[in-house]
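Blackboard transcription, Thursday session:
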Amino acid sequence: MKKVNKGIILASMMAILLILTGCQSKSSQKNSVTIVGSTALQPLVEKAAADYQVKNSGVDITVQGGGSGTGLSQVQQGAVSIGNSDVFAEQQDGIDAKKVVDHKVAVVGMAPVVNQDVPIKNISMANLRKVFTGKITNWKQLGGPDQKIVVINRAQGSGIRKSFERVVLKGQPALNAQEQDSNGTVQKIVQATPGSISYLSFSYFNNQIKHLAIDGVQPNAKNVENNRWKIWSYEHMYTKPNASAATNNFIKYMKSEKVQKNLVSDLGYISIHDMKVELTSDDQVIPIKGAEE
Amino acid sequence: MDAVKKELTRKSKASRQDQRGKLISLACVTLIMLVVLSILYMITSKGLATFFENKMSIVDFFTKQVWNPSAKPQALVGALPMIVGSFSVTVLSALLAAPFAIATAIFMVDIAGKRGRKILQPVIELLVGIPSVVYGFIGLTVVVPFTRTVFGGTGFGILSGTFVLFVMVLPTVTSMYVDSLKAVPQFYREASLALGATRWQTIYKVIIRASIPGLLTAIIFGMARAFGEALAVQMVIGNASILPSDLVSPASTLTSVLTTGIGNTVLGTLPNNALWSLALVLLLMSLVFNLLTRFIGKKGAF
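(Written on the board underneath:)
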């Protein structure tokens, strides 16, 4: 009886010790890369990391969500190797953009989506602004049936909302409406709620919801590349200036032709190599000199 | 002589075992205390930073209705809509769950007998083990459309939240009430029956009366669970920080705002501190619930 007790105690002590030291030894390993942040970018990075580790078995990559704010603050503190973010570090409260290095790894386009039974295919930018600021509240005002518009906004402070408001609202305060924090949930809700409008990344379009053209411009990759479609943003991976070699190699891999040509477009993002314009951290859109093709 | 003295003053095996056990449990308790205290300190210091560091008004926090802590130049931290939302779903779901829980518990203890209890007990306990995201998803795909067609509106709102929480707190309240019904002494029942009371008269005149403190404790425990539930509620309530005017318009709770916002903010900034203030309110409320159960427990008959 006593021996058993001792065994259990010893085993649990060992377990606690292992747990306590587990994190320590991992982060001090040279070839481990910890990535935390944006949930929108997470699937892409996870897939890329899995492919990368097949070929580079010495590298241990961990990818986690947590949100853009978490990613940026963790990388600024040096707690993780890479912080994923949907927003520029310059635009996030409490982050000193000089302390981190920006790596843009993909472009994501977003478009307004409506419930299937809304008989509208096109909306003007001015009207879209009026819908999201609460000045237009019925589809009748936009040539549709007499039905209330159900606005579904995105979570305050999220990357997609910042990008949408930058282009569409231009500083006007948004209508106080429902907020949802993930593309998947918004997709389901718009699909099921009559008269609803929201916005989604291109990769979440499906047959059960309808995406709208703005001023006659269709939301697709081609139109984002030359900025005819204006609602888009970068997916960033931030590192410290003195990042480890393993970290830099992985970033290089993310930006390589192989990932950009296949994985990035497979998952519904737009390759950074295809962009003919550049968006700066102070919201200026400038053409890229000598953009390919 | 010395040998005997030595033998007597030496610690015996049993007493050493005793000491070792004491030490181990003391270590465990200290660790837990440390964890609890550091969590309390973290939430309190961050939560109060909104008012002391960022100089937001504490009165505005509890009375204003606009929540936009990242607004510039003047941030707005009015948490009233969330506080009202949290309390509404909590109280409504507890009120809805109470009759069902009472009926189920009485059925299990006094009516169904051993075999019924054997079947019902695992069913009720199973409900506790289902992850809250499952409840949320079912809420989103079943409850919300149901509310929309039956009660109107978009389907998102306090009513949907109430329905989802009702299912989630039901097992908690039921199993706690079952325990307190079992604690009602058998001779209460026997005495009542001997006086000629029917089974129904015995149940509602004697058993329920005798177990009221237990029932209240069970309901408050259920409310504490409902108050702290985040994910499932967040999926069905709509998350609009608007003071709810009816039960079918989108509203928000303290937890739903916390979960949607915490990942998008940076530690140490006002938007983040404001969320910690919400967490502080949650913490204080669960403390109140805890004290309430103690208070009621003391008044209990047995």
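Lecturer's comment: Chain A touches chain B through 33 residues (CB under 8 Å).
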